[in-house]
């Protein structure tokens, strides 16, 4: 990465910002269009980011169906990177022309949980690309404190900064003991980030178990785990059984990052006595699964979850600057907002490792 402090003049407050912009906007669940709307106005403590790329993730499929925090009309996009195009008069942390990645979550700081130092669990979360306009637009407004300089990190790597921040929070939650054996189900973009962070934070050995395909191929190419198990569509029980036999004492930590309820249900059988099960995937809200409470009691199993990131982008940038977190090659297909329907299909069918929306 290059210089973090832009050498652009800080006394300018904006830079060639047009009146109108193109954006992908939902009017309600499943109803979207490319619209021409006003460029957002910014307040004294805000910045306007000219978006260069914004990652597409599984959560966007949930927003598409109107789930999670979705509020209409909605411009989705919560994994955005771009260049500062305008700043409010109080803004000091970034200047015009700086390239930044945006943290999409803003806690209210005054609710029950925020005042108990748990902003991640805020009851009134402002979610850029969820309940306020996000990054599938040419410009997006953010409070200045949510944007972080990324130097010359390429756009298609910068879109991984937010998912990596979520993974970083997952690592904090896991509290991996030194020398642990870890099993990770799933190696989507998030799994690939988790895998790298797991190995840098105490795991002696990491196994990835995943369906075959471009994602597992890339994981192997990047060399992010110690062993890889392919779970096929037609014989999953055989392979799961083989994995169990090969690891009779199970794993200290088992991470479910596929979002598949059947995998989550079985994942607990791989947890060592005294071990932890990490619920990392995003499941449909209506899903229920069955676990044996006797087993959880008898084996003193800890079940924990990691909801999202809050303020973890600076840590991610440290790993990236140190050359330790590999972000290249994961976002492997780009689309324009006009191609959103096609992009959604490709993400749904898992034809891409990770898609990103890009702008000129
Ligand atoms: Zn996401
Ligand atoms: Zn709050």
TrEMBL record:
Residues 27-357 form the Enoyl reductase (ER) domain. Keywords: Metal-binding, Oxidoreductase, Zinc. InterPro entries: ADH-like_C, ADH-like_N, ADH_Zn_CS, ER, GroES-like_sf, NAD(P)-bd_dom_sf, Zn_alcohol_dh. Its cofactor is Zn(2+). It comes from the Eukaryota. GO terms for molecular function: oxidoreductase activity; zinc ion binding. PANTHER family: L-THREONINE 3-DEHYDROGENASE. This is L-threonine 3-dehydrogenase. It comes from Cucurbitaria berberidis CBS 394.84.
